[in-house]
């Protein structure tokens, strides 16, 4: 698979949550074929929608691993989102101060199988927080569940690749 006769970065993720992310919004580097686009029929994915309850204590410990020791957590909110709706920046307010951090850093600290993607909202609940989200993975490139849904509807591999990597071409010759 090529762009301008050069091999592409053919990245993929499990499920997009209905919208892929561009490479620029996730990694800060644009690729003309890694753009945000809608994805239909991922409903068979176990990660179409997910919830994760995180106690304030667990969240505080995760933040401490990132060097943020702000005491008991009182409030957590998404303060910046990417064009595809993914959380970029999180504001955390604790008894000992406030701090902002990247949503990907928070996801990593809590566990990527707990917070399955950065396409989430955060709600206060009792002594903790509930992350309500969609999708699984970074969201860039091909959604595996979206590709499977396309194949079940009769799309062949060429149509699937053209959908998830627009403007690319399948090359049989040598690439630069």
Molecular structure report:
This protein is α+β, with helices and mostly antiparallel strands. Helices cover 23% and strands 28% of the residues. Strands 4-9-8 form a three-stranded antiparallel sheet. It has a three-stranded antiparallel sheet with strand order 5-6-7. A two-stranded antiparallel sheet has the order 1-2. A hairpin with a 2-residue loop joins strand 1 (2-3) and strand 2. 38% of the residues are buried. The model has no long low-confidence stretch (mean pLDDT 94).
DSSP helix fraction: 10-25%
Q: Identify low-pLDDT runs.
A: none
Cα-atom Rg, whole angstroms?
18 Å
What count of helical segments does DSSP give?
5
Query: What is the overall pLDDT average?
Result: 94
Element string (H = helix, E = strand): EEEHEHEEEHEEEHH
Shape, per Cα inertia axes: elongated
Q: Main β-sheet: number of strands, strand sense, barrel status?
A: 3 strands, antiparallel
Question: What class, by secondary structure content?
Answer: alpha+beta
Number of E-type strands: 10
Q: Approximately what portion of the residues adopt beta-strand conformation?
A: 25-35%
Strand order of the largest sheet: 4-9-8
Euclidean distance between termini CA atoms: 12 Å
